[in-house]
Structures are given as C-alpha cells and as structure tokens.
Amino acid sequence: RVLDRSGHIVGRLGGEEFGIIVLSGEARAMDLADRVRTGVAEDWFFVGDEVLQLTMSIGVAMAGNEDGVADVLRRADEALYVAKREGRDRVRVAG
Questions:
Q1: Which residue among 16, 42, 50, 66 is the active-site one?
Q2: What is the pTM of this model?
Q3: Is-catalytic flag, 78?
Q4: Contact criterion met (CB below 8 Å) for 23 and 7
Q5: Most buried among 37, 60, 70, 88, using CB within 10 Å?
C-alpha cells in the first residue's frame, strides 16, 4: 500500500485489481478515477514490434457510517463489473 501526498491510500487487491481509498466526497473520487483511467489510456507500451494501449474500468463506492470494508469493496466490485458490461474503459459508481 502507498499513501500519496493527497492522503489517498493505494494498494493492490489481487490479480489485476487495485484499490484507492479517497478521503473525500463522491465528486472528487469520480474525478480522480477518471483521471487515472485517461492517464493509463494515454500511455503506449511496446512489446517487441507490437504497440499496446491499455484501458481500464473502474468501480467507485462510497462508505457510509454503517459500512465495513467488505461492504464497500463488494459495491466497488459490482460497479466495476457494470463498467465492464457497458463496454469497458469507463468509471461507474455503485448505486
């Protein structure tokens, strides 16, 4: 896990899944998620003669007063899979 200068906590959850705990409201979390998504898409990766452009789908969930970590992660994961079903390379917030 890494704590960035904004106070956000970043860590790998497993496989190809990462989490960012954003210590702010939904609008700021959505903005950060979209900036991460577009930043990844702007980079090109070279593998031999092949050029790869990566995309990412992101699920965002807000924690309520009664939520445990597992609750928030489950809702973020559900939002992630909504983003994937809708065509990938997008950010979706948990309902």
A1: 16
A2: 0.80
A3: no
A4: yes
A5: 60
